[in-house]
Amino acid sequence: MKSLIIIYSLTLSAIFVQNASPMLFNSIDFAVFLPLVFLLYWWVNNRSLKLQNALIVAASYVFYGWWDWRFLSLILFSTLVDYLVGLKLKTQRDPIKRKVLLWTSIGVNLGFLGFFKYYHFFQDNFIEAFSLFGREIQPNSLNIILPVGISFYTFQTLSYTIDVYRRKLEPTKDFVAFAAFVSFFPQLVAGPIERAANLLPQFYRKRVFDYHQAVDGLRQILWGLFKKVVIADNAADMANVFFNAPADYPGSVLLLGAVFFAFQIYGDFSGYSDIAIGTARLFGFDLMRNFAYPYFSRDIAEFWRRWHISLSTWFRDYLYIPLGGSRGGTWMKIRNTFIIFIVSGFWHGANWTFIVWGALNALYFLPLLLTKKNRTHLDIVAQDRLLPSPMEALRMLATFGATVLAWVFFRAENLTHAFTYLKGIFSSTLLSLPKAMHFEEVGVHPAILVFFLAVMLVTEWLGRRQPYAIALAGTALNGPFRYAFYYALVLFIFFFGGANQQFIYFQF
């Protein structure tokens, strides 16, 4: 119990360092919300499983409503539609009527997603297309706000309906459990995108408090906070300066900016996933792994098996395989590869930059697929060795370099911005040495950020065989060293945490 209290106190201390609104994981609001829900949740544990699930629903709706209460109706309506469609699919035998039910669910969910996320994209491109023919259109503009997390819970509920339609999953009659599955607050706004087959049955079973599971969850939360606050927020401060004015910096500095953004998005999103998974473990739930050290990948196929795993596998199972996967001829393989990557890019945002980012990753992936080398690296790099071989190191560096260049499109405001930035990188100044004057506007000295990047990379390299980097800290380190390590992480967060930045994937 002593370990649980100490790690819990340290984790909350790390959260209290940041003061953000709305209810971010690194905000004071969440630091108050989480222990209250935790205590209430385990207090009602011996009373009723349904009451415990109802508490999760209530807490999740409070959590989501903290962002904007108006969008609670959307998540409730989506929950009702998919719950009722699931029940009807169980009793309906007629194939045509079953397809109507399936497409009702798909239409409602993707209809909401399309309207709120892509309305302005299609409107703006429609206007621009007509302007090419000399026609000026002045449509009425709608002030549409993107509901946070809609891309994530939409795909989560769709997976339930599709699996029920395929008869791979028995539909639930427990509406409270289903509502808890859809709205579960640790992973509601940015994943992992859970499958009903994994998460929903956990709401049927009685949860018993597991001390070791709770300590493990807190440890993962602490590591996620370090990656978010120390790595991602500082890297964001650096990357934003360079991306905002690429014409003011030499190619060498712009390349550093792209590298810093690569670590920003990794620290930000994998940090969120660690916090989400760790928080779920406090309540007795096991969420799927979402990152598996992707920057240690030896080719782009391995990278996509390790990056945003819940989304990659979702597109694989519900889009790529139904399209034929890699079973057909060469043309079908090329078509399906581009479809899945472009759709994945468009899922991330209503901007041509995301579509180009997806297409570029398809180009990276295609040679591996056509030469049947896309499943060459299924094991962990340097599985039984401390260090990688020279060839493995070169492959990791090449994969990371290609990924960094693709991230430029992901980060850019528009295609012109992206090409301007890339042109600046590949200029005659690429080999020039950065100067101190180039970093005058950043909040932290680049040497400090490089030091913390080294801390993260070394820690993750040593822990790459584990589900998260410091999973074995509780057993590999003796008591004093273990708590010294935890305190060091908190001190790093307290003294070197960057200016608070909202989690990147909340905008998707």
Descriptive labels:
mainly alpha; 19 helices; 66% helix; globular
Q: What class do helices, strands and sheet pairing give?
A: mainly alpha
For the termini, the CA-CA separation is 39 Å
Low-pLDDT runs of 5+ residues are 16-20
Number of helices: 19
What is the assembly state of the chains in this entry? Answer: single chain
Question: How many domains, in number, for the residues?
Answer: 2
- Would you count the extended β strands for me? 0
The amount of beta strand, in percent, is under 5%
Helix content: 55-70%
Major sheet size, sense and barrel closure: none
Radius of gyration: 23 Å
Shape: globular
Whole-number average pLDDT?
Answer: 87
Order of helices and strands: HHHHHHHHHHHHHHHHHHH
Describe the protein.
The protein folds into 2 domains: 195 residues, no CATH class; 161 residues, no CATH class. The chain contains 19 helices and no strands. The protein starts with a helix and ends in a 12-residue tail after the last helix. By secondary structure, it is mainly alpha-helical.
